[in-house]
Design goal:
alpha/beta; Rossmann fold; 5-stranded parallel sheet; globular
Length: 167
């Protein structure tokens, strides 16, 4: 079975510095990724068309990054049965709290998983975990990543213990 693609949709090209973390993480797992700019407000028909045909076009998960009113994730989720992960983007307005609340407050029947403000890396990891449900190789990569994180924390603890002994 071919690995499903992940779509990374941003409401504005100004969101690219945030979503680039997701693209890098997805690339590190060798997950095919497509990145597009679509607006829930300026190009609603294009957003609806993309998400309504995403499954047939080989996507398994959609990431949606938007700031301010942040309706993009909900618009995409309304037109697909694929998992949609919202990435609220910090903007000059309310430090991203507006985007967080808009992304997380979806009506019943239109779920959007939501990560932290500017949490693109976690969105990519969550997308990988969703795809890994049916991909043992990807699941192994994720397990190795988590082992590496645990080893890193253990090393930091050992370094701190050495510093404490020197006091």
């Amino acid at each position: 079975m071919a690995l499903k693609k992940v779509a990374v949709i941003m409401g504005s090209d100004s969101d690219f510095p945030v979503v680039s973390a997701a693209v890098k993480r997805l690339n590190s797992f060798n997950i095919p990724v497509e990145v597009h700019v679509m607006s829930a407000h300026r190009t609603p028909a294009a957003a609806a068309e993309f998400s309504s045909s995403a499954k047939e076009n080989g996507f398994g998960v959609i990431l949606a990054a938007a700031g301010k009113a942040a309706h993009l994730a909900g618009v995409l989720a309304a037109h697909t049965t694929l998992p949609v992960i919202g990435i609220p983007v910090k903007s000059s307005t309310l430090d991203g709290l507006d985007a967080l609340l808009a992304t997380v407050q979806m009506p019943s029947g239109i779920p959007v998983a939501t990560v932290a403000i500017d949490g693109a890396d976690n969105a990519a990891i969550l997308a990988a975990q969703i795809l890994a449900v049916h991909d043992d190789g990807l699941a192994s990569q994720l397990a190795e990543m988590k082992r590496g994180m645990a080893e890193g924390v253990a090393k930091k603890d050992a370094d701190i213990q050495a510093k404490v002994r020197e006091l």
